[in-house]
Amino acid sequence: MIASCDESHVVEKNKPHLxxxxxxxxxxxxxxxRSVAPLISPESTCPRISLPGVxxxxxxxxxxxxxxxxxxxxxxxxxxxxxxxxFLFGMYPCSSTALERPLMLEQMAVRxxxxxxxxxxxxxxxxxxRLNGTDxxxxxxxxxxxxxxxxxHNRQHAHLDEVSERMSFLELQSQVxxxxxxxxxxxxxxxxxxxxxxVPRTDRDLPYYRKEGLGNxxxxxxxxxxxxxxxPEVSYAQGMNDLCSRFLEVLDSEVDTFWSFSCYMEKFSKDxxxxxxxxxxxxxxxxxxxxxxxxxxxxxxxxxxxxxFCHRWLLLGFQREFEHSDxxxxxxxxxxxxxxxxSQQVDRxxxxxxxxxxxxxxxxxxxxxxVNTDFTxxxxxxxxxxxxxxxxxxxxxxxxxLIQFTSSLQGKLDLNSTLxxxxxxxxxxxxxxxxxxxxxxxxVRKNKEDFxxxxxxxxS
Length: 460
Known about the structure:
mainly alpha, 19 helices, disordered N terminus
C-alpha cells in the first residue's frame, strides 16, 4: 500500500523550529542571515545521510529506500535537506562512494567555471546585471557579490597550489570539452535580457536574499545564464528563476545548484515549452473530467482556455500556494516519484494479465479501461485543490474571477490535508480503473472469486 503523509513525522507548527529551510531561517522571529553563497559549500564535499538504511558504510545511497523514506515521512528535515537533494536530484550518482565524490565535485567545479567563463568572454557587457539606480538594495547586492568573487578568487589560487597536477589535467579536459561549443549570441542575449528582468524579483521576501544575502540574486543570475548558454534547445523561460532559487537556497553553493538544477531540467524542461505546456493542461483536463464531469464542463471552455490558470501551480510545484517550508517538502515528495512508480507497477501487472489470458478470452471482448500512468501525482494534487474549491470555481464567470481565486490561495493551503485528499483521489482512480478491468474480465468468466483474487493481487 502507498503510505500517506504521516503528520507524526513532520514538524508541528506550534513547536519552536526553523520555519525556513536550508542555510537561512527564522528562529522565534529572528533572522539568521548568511553571506553570499560560495562556489562550493563545505557541505558539498561530505554529504552524509543519517536516514536509517539509506547509506551504506562506503557512502553509497539506496535510491529506492531514499525515495520511499521521503514519501512516507512527508519530506526531509531541514538539517538533512541539503545532503539529500544532492542525491535526489542527481548531482551525485547514488552509486558513488564517499571517496569518489570529492573528485567528482572537483570536476564539476572546473567544468562550471569554464562554462561560465566562455559566455562571459563572448559577451563581456553581460557579465554584470544592468542597474537603473532606483533599486538601492540591488546596488548593495553588487558590492556583496564582488566581495564574494574576490574571496573565491583567492581560495581558488590557494587550492590550485595544493593540487596543481590534478587540477591542470581537469582544466585541460574542460578546455577541450567546451572549446568547440558555439553560441547563438542573439538568442543568448535575448535570454539574458529576460533573466535580468526576472532575477531582481525572485524570492526577495525570503531571509536567504536579505541583507548581504542579496548577492545571491547575482549568483542565481550567473547560474541561469550559464544554463541557457549551454542548453540552447531550452534556453531560459520565465519560472526557471523560481525553481533554480529553490536549489540555491537549499544547497547554498553555485556549483551544486547549477548541476542539480541541470539534472532536474533534463526531466522537466519540456514543461517550459509550448508543447509540454499544452500536454500537461490536456492531462489535467482529462483527469478532472473523470473525477468531476460537471466542474470539468464548467472550466474547460474557450474562455477559460483549458485550465491554463493551473499551469503556474504545476510548473512551480505549488511554490506559492503553500507556506514556504511546506512547499519545499512538497517539491521533495513530487520528486521522489513514489506514486508514479506504483501506478506503473499496477499497469505492468495488468499488462501481464492481458498476455496470460490472450488465448483464453473470446476475441470479441473489447479492450477495457486502463490506468493512465500519465496522470502523475502532481495532477491529482492540482485536481484536489480544484475539487476542494468546487463551489467557488463554479461561481467564477470569467478569467478575472479565476485570477482572483488563484491569488486568494497563495500561502493559505494546508499541505498535510491536501496530500491526504490527493492520495485518496489517486487510489479511487486506480481502484476504479482496476475494478472496470477486472469486472469486465470476470463477466466473461462468470467467477466472482476470481475477480476478488485478482483485485487483491493488483493492490497487494
